[in-house]
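Following up on my earlier thread - several people asked me to post the actual chain instead of describing it. Fair enough. Here it is, all 109 residues.
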Amino acid sequence: MSETKKNKRFFNIGGVFFLLIVIPLSLMAFLIANGMFKLGLTIKQSTVNVLDNKSQEDIRARAVNAANEVANFLMEINKDLQVATIIPSTESVYKQFVSENKKTGLDQT
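Reply from S.P.:
Thanks for posting it. Predicted structure:
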């Protein structure tokens, strides 16, 4: 009978140990892992949003810069047209005007 009491007592101590130590630790490990996973997703989304905002600002700045270059180019063309209407209408004068005002794409100097 004493051996049966020892077995019962061992199972009671083992059961209590399992209930008080192992189950709470397992639950805490699960909750911590779940929280870390959610934190990782949140950080990833925040990073993507920040990068998207920076990309949008960069694209916006490039678009404004390109629009300004196009506007400057069109204003120069307009000035050239106004000058072309004033100069004498001979072939040699037009050839001279064209050679002096020749533009090479966006790399104007």
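The mean pLDDT is 82. That should answer part of your original question.
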